[in-house]
Amino acid sequence: MELGSIWMVLICILGFFLALKRILQRVNGWLYETKLGEIQYSLPPGDLGWPFIGNMWSFLRAFKSTDPDAFMHFFTTRYGRTGIYKAFMFGRPSVFVTTPETCKRVLIDDDAFKPGWPSSTMELIGKKSFIGISYEEHKRLRRLTASPVNGHEALSLYLDYIEENVISALDKWATMGQIEFLTELRKLTFRIIMYVFLSSESEPVMEALEREYTALNYGVRAMAINLPGFAYHKALKARKNLVASLQSIVDERRSRRKNSISSKKKDMMDALMDVDDENGRKLTDEEIIDVLLMYLNAGHESSGHVTMWATIFLQEHPEFLQKAKEEQEEIIKRRPPTQKGLTLKEVRDMKYLSKVIDETLRLITFSLVVFREAKADVNMNGYVIPKGWKVLVWFRSVHLDPEIYPNPKEFNPSRWDNYTAKAGTFLPFGAGSRMCPGNDLAKLEISIFLHHFLLNYELERLNPGCSLMYLPHSRPKDNCFSRIKKIQDSLMKKQK
Questions:
Q1: Do the strands 178-180 and 481-486 form a parallel or antiparallel pair, or are they unpaired?
Q2: CATH code of 76's domain
Q3: Segment (H or E) for 380
Q4: Would the pTM of this model clear 0.85, i.e. be above it?
Protein backbone atom coordinates (compact mmCIF):
# COMPACT_ATOMS: atom_id res chain seq x y z
CA MET A 1 0.00 0.00 0.00
CA GLU A 2 2.71 2.44 0.94
CA LEU A 3 4.58 1.84 -2.33
CA GLY A 4 1.36 2.27 -4.29
CA SER A 5 0.63 5.52 -2.48
CA ILE A 6 4.07 6.87 -3.30
CA TRP A 7 3.56 6.11 -6.95
CA MET A 8 0.17 7.81 -6.92
CA VAL A 9 1.72 10.91 -5.37
CA LEU A 10 4.52 10.95 -7.96
CA ILE A 11 2.02 10.55 -10.79
CA CYS A 12 -0.09 13.40 -9.39
CA ILE A 13 2.98 15.64 -9.08
CA LEU A 14 4.05 14.81 -12.64
CA GLY A 15 0.52 15.45 -13.91
CA PHE A 16 0.46 18.79 -12.08
CA PHE A 17 3.71 19.96 -13.66
CA LEU A 18 2.65 18.83 -17.12
CA ALA A 19 -0.63 20.69 -16.74
CA LEU A 20 1.23 23.76 -15.43
CA LYS A 21 3.59 23.62 -18.41
CA ARG A 22 0.69 23.53 -20.86
CA ILE A 23 -0.97 26.45 -19.10
CA LEU A 24 2.20 28.54 -19.08
CA GLN A 25 2.78 27.86 -22.77
CA ARG A 26 -0.68 29.22 -23.52
CA VAL A 27 -0.47 32.37 -21.37
CA ASN A 28 0.98 34.60 -24.09
CA GLY A 29 -1.67 33.35 -26.49
CA TRP A 30 -4.44 34.30 -24.05
CA LEU A 31 -2.86 37.70 -23.40
CA TYR A 32 -2.10 38.74 -26.97
CA GLU A 33 -4.13 36.61 -29.38
CA THR A 34 -7.62 36.22 -27.93
CA LYS A 35 -8.19 39.98 -27.81
CA LEU A 36 -7.65 40.15 -31.58
CA GLY A 37 -11.02 38.59 -32.27
CA GLU A 38 -11.34 36.92 -35.67
CA ILE A 39 -7.82 38.03 -36.65
CA GLN A 40 -6.32 35.48 -34.28
CA TYR A 41 -7.36 32.72 -36.67
CA SER A 42 -5.37 34.37 -39.49
CA LEU A 43 -2.12 34.79 -37.58
CA PRO A 44 1.03 33.21 -39.05
CA PRO A 45 2.05 29.82 -37.65
CA GLY A 46 4.45 29.89 -34.75
CA ASP A 47 4.88 29.85 -31.02
CA LEU A 48 4.70 32.74 -28.53
CA GLY A 49 6.76 30.81 -26.00
CA TRP A 50 6.72 31.26 -22.25
CA PRO A 51 5.26 34.21 -20.32
CA PHE A 52 7.52 37.28 -20.18
CA ILE A 53 10.57 35.61 -21.81
CA GLY A 54 8.69 34.30 -24.86
CA ASN A 55 11.19 32.89 -27.38
CA MET A 56 14.16 34.86 -26.06
CA TRP A 57 15.60 31.93 -24.17
CA SER A 58 15.61 29.78 -27.33
CA PHE A 59 17.13 32.67 -29.30
CA LEU A 60 19.94 33.27 -26.82
CA ARG A 61 20.59 29.55 -26.36
CA ALA A 62 21.01 29.05 -30.12
CA PHE A 63 23.18 32.12 -30.64
CA LYS A 64 25.43 31.19 -27.74
CA SER A 65 25.90 27.69 -29.15
CA THR A 66 27.83 26.56 -32.21
CA ASP A 67 24.69 26.56 -34.36
CA PRO A 68 22.84 29.91 -34.29
CA ASP A 69 20.60 28.84 -37.16
CA ALA A 70 19.02 26.21 -34.91
CA PHE A 71 16.73 28.98 -33.65
CA MET A 72 15.01 29.60 -36.99
CA HIS A 73 15.35 25.92 -37.93
CA PHE A 74 12.86 25.17 -35.15
CA PHE A 75 10.22 27.30 -36.86
CA THR A 76 10.85 26.02 -40.39
CA THR A 77 10.85 22.34 -39.42
CA ARG A 78 7.83 22.59 -37.15
CA TYR A 79 5.66 24.96 -39.21
CA GLY A 80 7.00 24.58 -42.74
CA ARG A 81 8.73 27.09 -45.03
CA THR A 82 5.96 29.68 -44.90
CA GLY A 83 8.43 32.58 -44.73
CA ILE A 84 6.47 34.17 -41.88
CA TYR A 85 6.13 33.06 -38.23
CA LYS A 86 4.69 34.47 -35.02
CA ALA A 87 6.86 34.62 -31.90
CA PHE A 88 7.36 36.63 -28.72
CA MET A 89 10.64 38.57 -28.80
CA PHE A 90 12.10 41.33 -26.63
CA GLY A 91 8.91 41.52 -24.58
CA ARG A 92 6.47 41.97 -27.48
CA PRO A 93 4.36 39.74 -29.77
CA SER A 94 6.27 39.60 -33.03
CA VAL A 95 6.34 38.18 -36.54
CA PHE A 96 9.48 36.93 -38.29
CA VAL A 97 9.75 37.41 -42.06
CA THR A 98 12.41 35.22 -43.67
CA THR A 99 12.05 35.21 -47.47
CA PRO A 100 13.19 37.77 -50.06
CA GLU A 101 9.62 38.76 -50.90
CA THR A 102 8.44 39.27 -47.32
CA CYS A 103 11.66 40.99 -46.24
CA LYS A 104 11.61 43.38 -49.19
CA ARG A 105 8.00 44.34 -48.62
CA VAL A 106 8.48 45.10 -44.92
CA LEU A 107 11.60 47.17 -45.63
CA ILE A 108 10.19 49.31 -48.45
CA ASP A 109 6.51 49.71 -47.44
CA ASP A 110 6.68 52.80 -45.22
CA ASP A 111 2.89 53.16 -45.34
CA ALA A 112 2.38 49.81 -43.59
CA PHE A 113 5.46 49.58 -41.36
CA LYS A 114 7.43 51.93 -39.14
CA PRO A 115 10.58 51.39 -37.06
CA GLY A 116 9.85 48.97 -34.23
CA TRP A 117 13.08 48.55 -32.31
CA PRO A 118 12.73 47.18 -28.76
CA SER A 119 12.50 49.81 -26.04
CA SER A 120 15.69 48.37 -24.51
CA THR A 121 17.56 49.05 -27.78
CA MET A 122 16.07 52.55 -27.96
CA GLU A 123 17.42 53.26 -24.50
CA LEU A 124 20.90 52.27 -25.63
CA ILE A 125 21.09 53.76 -29.13
CA GLY A 126 18.95 56.82 -28.41
CA LYS A 127 15.30 57.81 -28.84
CA LYS A 128 16.36 60.75 -31.02
CA SER A 129 18.57 58.65 -33.30
CA PHE A 130 17.42 57.29 -36.67
CA ILE A 131 15.79 54.26 -35.08
CA GLY A 132 13.41 56.37 -33.03
CA ILE A 133 12.40 59.44 -35.05
CA SER A 134 9.46 59.89 -37.42
CA TYR A 135 9.59 59.14 -41.13
CA GLU A 136 9.61 62.85 -42.03
CA GLU A 137 12.37 63.72 -39.58
CA HIS A 138 14.36 60.67 -40.63
CA LYS A 139 14.10 61.64 -44.29
CA ARG A 140 15.40 65.14 -43.56
CA LEU A 141 18.26 64.07 -41.30
CA ARG A 142 19.24 61.16 -43.55
CA ARG A 143 19.57 63.52 -46.51
CA LEU A 144 21.77 65.79 -44.41
CA THR A 145 23.98 63.08 -42.91
CA ALA A 146 24.26 60.75 -45.91
CA SER A 147 25.70 63.33 -48.30
CA PRO A 148 29.05 63.64 -46.47
CA VAL A 149 29.64 59.86 -46.58
CA ASN A 150 28.30 58.91 -50.02
CA GLY A 151 28.94 59.85 -53.62
CA HIS A 152 32.10 60.45 -55.64
CA GLU A 153 32.97 63.88 -54.25
CA ALA A 154 32.49 62.92 -50.59
CA LEU A 155 34.42 59.66 -50.82
CA SER A 156 37.27 61.37 -52.64
CA LEU A 157 37.71 63.67 -49.64
CA TYR A 158 38.36 60.73 -47.30
CA LEU A 159 40.30 58.38 -49.56
CA ASP A 160 43.75 59.80 -48.83
CA TYR A 161 43.10 59.90 -45.08
CA ILE A 162 41.85 56.31 -45.03
CA GLU A 163 44.78 55.06 -47.10
CA GLU A 164 47.32 56.89 -44.95
CA ASN A 165 45.92 55.37 -41.77
CA VAL A 166 45.64 51.87 -43.27
CA ILE A 167 49.30 51.92 -44.37
CA SER A 168 50.40 53.24 -40.97
CA ALA A 169 48.31 50.67 -39.06
CA LEU A 170 49.53 47.66 -41.07
CA ASP A 171 53.14 48.77 -40.70
CA LYS A 172 52.67 49.17 -36.94
CA TRP A 173 50.89 45.84 -36.49
CA ALA A 174 53.68 44.02 -38.32
CA THR A 175 56.10 45.13 -35.60
CA MET A 176 53.81 44.36 -32.64
CA GLY A 177 54.01 40.57 -32.75
CA GLN A 178 50.83 39.07 -31.33
CA ILE A 179 47.70 41.21 -31.68
CA GLU A 180 43.94 40.91 -31.48
CA PHE A 181 43.32 41.59 -35.15
CA LEU A 182 39.66 42.53 -34.70
CA THR A 183 40.41 44.87 -31.81
CA GLU A 184 43.05 46.69 -33.84
CA LEU A 185 40.78 46.90 -36.89
CA ARG A 186 38.01 48.43 -34.80
CA LYS A 187 40.43 51.04 -33.51
CA LEU A 188 41.38 51.84 -37.09
CA THR A 189 37.80 52.12 -38.37
CA PHE A 190 36.82 54.14 -35.30
CA ARG A 191 39.65 56.61 -36.00
CA ILE A 192 38.30 57.02 -39.55
CA ILE A 193 34.68 57.58 -38.53
CA MET A 194 35.75 60.02 -35.80
CA TYR A 195 37.64 62.01 -38.43
CA VAL A 196 34.64 62.05 -40.78
CA PHE A 197 32.15 63.14 -38.13
CA LEU A 198 34.17 65.09 -35.58
CA SER A 199 37.53 65.91 -37.21
CA SER A 200 39.04 64.29 -34.13
CA GLU A 201 42.24 62.32 -33.86
CA SER A 202 42.76 62.40 -30.10
CA GLU A 203 44.10 58.92 -29.34
CA PRO A 204 43.04 58.79 -25.64
CA VAL A 205 39.52 60.06 -26.45
CA MET A 206 39.09 57.58 -29.30
CA GLU A 207 40.27 54.58 -27.28
CA ALA A 208 38.01 55.49 -24.35
CA LEU A 209 34.97 55.91 -26.59
CA GLU A 210 35.67 52.70 -28.51
CA ARG A 211 35.85 50.69 -25.27
CA GLU A 212 32.47 52.08 -24.20
CA TYR A 213 30.99 51.13 -27.58
CA THR A 214 32.15 47.54 -27.04
CA ALA A 215 30.16 47.35 -23.80
CA LEU A 216 27.19 49.07 -25.44
CA ASN A 217 27.00 46.55 -28.26
CA TYR A 218 27.04 43.54 -25.95
CA GLY A 219 23.80 44.85 -24.45
CA VAL A 220 21.92 45.47 -27.70
CA ARG A 221 20.92 41.82 -28.27
CA ALA A 222 20.85 40.84 -24.59
CA MET A 223 17.78 40.46 -22.40
CA ALA A 224 16.91 43.81 -20.83
CA ILE A 225 17.87 42.94 -17.26
CA ASN A 226 19.11 46.10 -15.58
CA LEU A 227 20.96 44.45 -12.71
CA PRO A 228 24.70 44.47 -11.91
CA GLY A 229 26.57 41.75 -13.75
CA PHE A 230 24.20 41.60 -16.73
CA ALA A 231 25.24 42.82 -20.20
CA TYR A 232 22.32 45.25 -20.46
CA HIS A 233 23.24 46.94 -17.17
CA LYS A 234 26.83 47.39 -18.37
CA ALA A 235 25.56 48.72 -21.69
CA LEU A 236 23.42 51.39 -19.99
CA LYS A 237 26.47 52.56 -18.03
CA ALA A 238 28.46 52.66 -21.27
CA ARG A 239 25.78 54.79 -22.93
CA LYS A 240 25.85 57.21 -20.01
CA ASN A 241 29.61 57.58 -20.37
CA LEU A 242 29.35 57.98 -24.15
CA VAL A 243 26.71 60.69 -23.83
CA ALA A 244 28.85 62.56 -21.30
CA SER A 245 31.88 62.39 -23.60
CA LEU A 246 29.92 63.51 -26.66
CA GLN A 247 28.27 66.30 -24.66
CA SER A 248 31.70 67.68 -23.76
CA ILE A 249 32.65 67.58 -27.45
CA VAL A 250 29.42 69.40 -28.39
CA ASP A 251 30.02 72.01 -25.68
CA GLU A 252 33.56 72.59 -26.88
CA ARG A 253 32.41 72.92 -30.51
CA ARG A 254 29.68 75.40 -29.54
CA SER A 255 32.22 77.43 -27.60
CA ARG A 256 34.61 77.50 -30.56
CA ARG A 257 31.86 78.56 -32.93
CA LYS A 258 30.67 81.26 -30.52
CA ASN A 259 34.19 82.65 -30.38
CA SER A 260 34.47 82.44 -34.18
CA ILE A 261 37.22 79.83 -34.04
CA SER A 262 36.78 77.88 -37.27
CA SER A 263 37.54 74.18 -37.65
CA LYS A 264 40.05 72.87 -40.16
CA LYS A 265 37.17 71.41 -42.16
CA LYS A 266 33.40 71.38 -41.98
CA ASP A 267 32.43 68.00 -40.54
CA MET A 268 29.22 66.23 -39.54
CA MET A 269 29.10 67.97 -36.18
CA ASP A 270 29.02 71.35 -37.94
CA ALA A 271 26.31 70.15 -40.31
CA LEU A 272 24.12 68.93 -37.45
CA MET A 273 24.55 72.21 -35.59
CA ASP A 274 23.67 74.26 -38.68
CA VAL A 275 20.60 72.35 -39.82
CA ASP A 276 17.11 73.69 -39.11
CA ASP A 277 13.60 72.72 -40.15
CA GLU A 278 11.00 74.73 -42.06
CA ASN A 279 10.20 76.63 -38.86
CA GLY A 280 13.83 77.51 -38.20
CA ARG A 281 14.18 75.07 -35.28
CA LYS A 282 17.69 73.86 -34.63
CA LEU A 283 18.56 70.38 -33.34
CA THR A 284 18.92 70.09 -29.58
CA ASP A 285 22.07 68.70 -27.98
CA GLU A 286 20.18 65.48 -27.23
CA GLU A 287 19.25 65.04 -30.89
CA ILE A 288 22.78 65.78 -32.10
CA ILE A 289 24.33 63.38 -29.57
CA ASP A 290 21.93 60.52 -30.36
CA VAL A 291 22.58 60.84 -34.11
CA LEU A 292 26.34 60.98 -33.54
CA LEU A 293 26.26 58.06 -31.09
CA MET A 294 24.41 55.93 -33.64
CA TYR A 295 26.64 56.86 -36.58
CA LEU A 296 29.92 56.46 -34.70
CA ASN A 297 28.82 53.00 -33.60
CA ALA A 298 27.49 51.72 -36.92
CA GLY A 299 30.31 53.40 -38.83
CA HIS A 300 33.11 51.41 -37.23
CA GLU A 301 31.58 48.13 -36.05
CA SER A 302 30.47 46.85 -39.44
CA SER A 303 33.63 47.94 -41.29
CA GLY A 304 35.92 46.40 -38.68
CA HIS A 305 34.15 43.04 -38.52
CA VAL A 306 33.68 42.64 -42.29
CA THR A 307 37.33 43.56 -42.94
CA MET A 308 38.44 40.93 -40.43
CA TRP A 309 36.26 38.22 -41.98
CA ALA A 310 37.24 39.07 -45.56
CA THR A 311 40.91 38.81 -44.55
CA ILE A 312 40.35 35.49 -42.75
CA PHE A 313 38.36 33.99 -45.64
CA LEU A 314 40.98 34.99 -48.22
CA GLN A 315 43.78 33.60 -46.05
CA GLU A 316 41.86 30.32 -45.72
CA HIS A 317 41.28 30.06 -49.49
CA PRO A 318 44.60 30.53 -51.32
CA GLU A 319 43.00 30.30 -54.77
CA PHE A 320 40.71 33.27 -54.07
CA LEU A 321 43.50 35.17 -52.32
CA GLN A 322 45.77 34.74 -55.36
CA LYS A 323 43.07 35.96 -57.73
CA ALA A 324 42.34 39.00 -55.56
CA LYS A 325 46.06 39.75 -55.24
CA GLU A 326 46.64 39.55 -59.00
CA GLU A 327 43.91 42.14 -59.52
CA GLN A 328 45.62 44.52 -57.07
CA GLU A 329 49.00 43.97 -58.72
CA GLU A 330 47.46 44.76 -62.10
CA ILE A 331 46.14 48.05 -60.71
CA ILE A 332 49.66 48.98 -59.59
CA LYS A 333 51.11 48.06 -63.01
CA ARG A 334 48.65 50.31 -64.84
CA ARG A 335 49.34 53.25 -62.55
CA PRO A 336 51.28 56.25 -63.97
CA PRO A 337 54.74 56.53 -62.34
CA THR A 338 53.93 60.02 -61.04
CA GLN A 339 50.80 58.88 -59.17
CA LYS A 340 51.00 58.39 -55.43
CA GLY A 341 48.31 56.37 -53.74
CA LEU A 342 44.95 55.00 -54.77
CA THR A 343 42.30 56.86 -56.73
CA LEU A 344 38.56 56.34 -56.50
CA LYS A 345 38.56 55.07 -60.09
CA GLU A 346 41.07 52.37 -59.14
CA VAL A 347 38.90 51.30 -56.21
CA ARG A 348 35.90 51.03 -58.50
CA ASP A 349 37.95 48.94 -60.93
CA MET A 350 38.45 46.29 -58.21
CA LYS A 351 35.74 44.05 -59.67
CA TYR A 352 36.89 40.81 -58.11
CA LEU A 353 37.60 42.38 -54.73
CA SER A 354 34.06 43.75 -54.79
CA LYS A 355 32.81 40.17 -55.15
CA VAL A 356 34.99 39.14 -52.19
CA ILE A 357 33.41 41.87 -50.07
CA ASP A 358 29.85 41.03 -51.19
CA GLU A 359 30.41 37.35 -50.45
CA THR A 360 31.74 38.23 -47.00
CA LEU A 361 28.75 40.47 -46.34
CA ARG A 362 26.39 37.67 -47.41
CA LEU A 363 28.05 34.90 -45.43
CA ILE A 364 28.58 36.87 -42.22
CA THR A 365 25.31 38.85 -42.32
CA PHE A 366 26.61 41.45 -39.89
CA SER A 367 23.11 42.72 -39.04
CA LEU A 368 21.10 39.54 -38.60
CA VAL A 369 17.77 41.34 -38.05
CA VAL A 370 16.05 44.73 -38.16
CA PHE A 371 12.85 45.69 -36.40
CA ARG A 372 9.65 47.18 -37.79
CA GLU A 373 6.13 47.57 -36.41
CA ALA A 374 2.82 47.18 -38.25
CA LYS A 375 1.00 50.53 -38.45
CA ALA A 376 -2.28 48.72 -39.24
CA ASP A 377 -3.42 45.14 -39.81
CA VAL A 378 -1.32 43.92 -42.75
CA ASN A 379 -2.12 40.94 -45.01
CA MET A 380 0.96 39.00 -46.09
CA ASN A 381 1.33 35.54 -47.61
CA GLY A 382 -2.26 34.73 -46.66
CA TYR A 383 -1.75 35.70 -43.01
CA VAL A 384 -2.47 38.83 -40.99
CA ILE A 385 0.14 40.80 -39.05
CA PRO A 386 -1.88 42.66 -36.39
CA LYS A 387 -1.48 46.38 -35.83
CA GLY A 388 1.15 47.11 -33.19
CA TRP A 389 2.94 43.76 -33.52
CA LYS A 390 6.67 43.87 -34.12
CA VAL A 391 8.03 42.57 -37.43
CA LEU A 392 11.56 41.13 -37.41
CA VAL A 393 13.25 41.04 -40.81
CA TRP A 394 15.49 37.97 -40.51
CA PHE A 395 18.35 38.50 -42.98
CA ARG A 396 20.21 35.28 -42.09
CA SER A 397 17.49 33.11 -43.59
CA VAL A 398 17.71 34.97 -46.90
CA HIS A 399 21.51 35.07 -47.16
CA LEU A 400 21.90 31.41 -46.18
CA ASP A 401 19.03 30.00 -48.26
CA PRO A 402 20.41 27.10 -50.36
CA GLU A 403 17.74 27.71 -53.01
CA ILE A 404 19.15 31.21 -53.58
CA TYR A 405 22.82 30.54 -52.85
CA PRO A 406 23.94 26.92 -53.41
CA ASN A 407 26.19 25.68 -50.59
CA PRO A 408 25.36 28.88 -48.70
CA LYS A 409 27.86 28.41 -45.85
CA GLU A 410 30.74 28.07 -48.30
CA PHE A 411 32.84 31.16 -49.01
CA ASN A 412 32.90 31.48 -52.80
CA PRO A 413 33.31 34.94 -54.39
CA SER A 414 33.00 33.33 -57.82
CA ARG A 415 29.30 32.74 -57.19
CA TRP A 416 28.91 36.44 -58.07
CA ASP A 417 30.40 35.99 -61.57
CA ASN A 418 27.78 37.15 -64.09
CA TYR A 419 25.22 37.08 -61.28
CA THR A 420 22.97 39.93 -60.21
CA ALA A 421 21.06 39.37 -57.00
CA LYS A 422 17.29 39.62 -57.38
CA ALA A 423 15.44 42.16 -55.28
CA GLY A 424 15.31 41.09 -51.64
CA THR A 425 17.94 38.34 -51.91
CA PHE A 426 20.96 40.44 -50.87
CA LEU A 427 20.32 42.82 -47.98
CA PRO A 428 23.58 43.49 -46.11
CA PHE A 429 22.68 47.15 -45.64
CA GLY A 430 18.91 46.76 -45.55
CA ALA A 431 16.65 48.33 -48.17
CA GLY A 432 14.11 51.09 -48.63
CA SER A 433 14.15 54.56 -47.12
CA ARG A 434 16.05 53.40 -44.03
CA MET A 435 18.84 51.61 -45.85
CA CYS A 436 22.21 52.13 -44.14
CA PRO A 437 23.48 55.51 -45.38
CA GLY A 438 27.16 54.70 -44.85
CA ASN A 439 27.43 51.65 -47.10
CA ASP A 440 29.63 53.36 -49.71
CA LEU A 441 32.07 54.59 -47.06
CA ALA A 442 32.21 51.13 -45.46
CA LYS A 443 33.02 49.43 -48.78
CA LEU A 444 35.67 52.06 -49.51
CA GLU A 445 37.40 51.40 -46.18
CA ILE A 446 37.34 47.63 -46.67
CA SER A 447 38.64 47.89 -50.26
CA ILE A 448 41.54 50.16 -49.32
CA PHE A 449 42.55 47.90 -46.44
CA LEU A 450 42.44 44.73 -48.53
CA HIS A 451 44.37 46.41 -51.36
CA HIS A 452 47.37 47.09 -49.13
CA PHE A 453 47.04 43.87 -47.16
CA LEU A 454 46.99 41.67 -50.27
CA LEU A 455 50.00 43.40 -51.78
CA ASN A 456 52.25 43.47 -48.73
CA TYR A 457 51.06 41.33 -45.80
CA GLU A 458 49.73 37.99 -44.63
CA LEU A 459 47.75 36.93 -41.59
CA GLU A 460 48.88 34.13 -39.29
CA ARG A 461 46.12 33.15 -36.88
CA LEU A 462 47.59 31.86 -33.63
CA ASN A 463 44.45 29.99 -32.66
CA PRO A 464 42.75 29.06 -35.97
CA GLY A 465 40.44 26.55 -34.30
CA CYS A 466 39.06 29.16 -31.91
CA SER A 467 35.30 28.86 -31.40
CA LEU A 468 32.98 31.64 -32.51
CA MET A 469 30.63 34.05 -30.78
CA TYR A 470 27.49 35.16 -32.63
CA LEU A 471 26.24 37.97 -30.40
CA PRO A 472 26.21 40.86 -30.87
CA HIS A 473 28.09 40.00 -34.10
CA SER A 474 29.91 36.94 -35.44
CA ARG A 475 33.56 36.86 -34.37
CA PRO A 476 36.22 34.49 -33.00
CA LYS A 477 36.19 34.46 -29.20
CA ASP A 478 39.84 35.50 -29.17
CA ASN A 479 39.13 38.50 -31.46
CA CYS A 480 41.28 36.79 -34.11
CA PHE A 481 44.50 36.54 -32.12
CA SER A 482 47.14 36.76 -34.85
CA ARG A 483 50.41 38.00 -36.27
CA ILE A 484 50.54 40.36 -39.23
CA LYS A 485 53.62 39.61 -41.32
CA LYS A 486 55.14 41.57 -44.17
CA ILE A 487 55.28 39.28 -47.20
CA GLN A 488 58.89 40.22 -47.93
CA ASP A 489 59.90 39.26 -44.38
CA SER A 490 58.03 35.95 -44.70
CA LEU A 491 59.75 35.11 -48.00
CA MET A 492 63.18 35.83 -46.53
CA LYS A 493 62.48 33.45 -43.62
CA LYS A 494 61.36 30.70 -46.00
CA GLN A 495 64.49 31.12 -48.11
CA LYS A 496 66.68 30.74 -45.01
A1: antiparallel
A2: 1.10.630.10
A3: strand 378-380
A4: yes
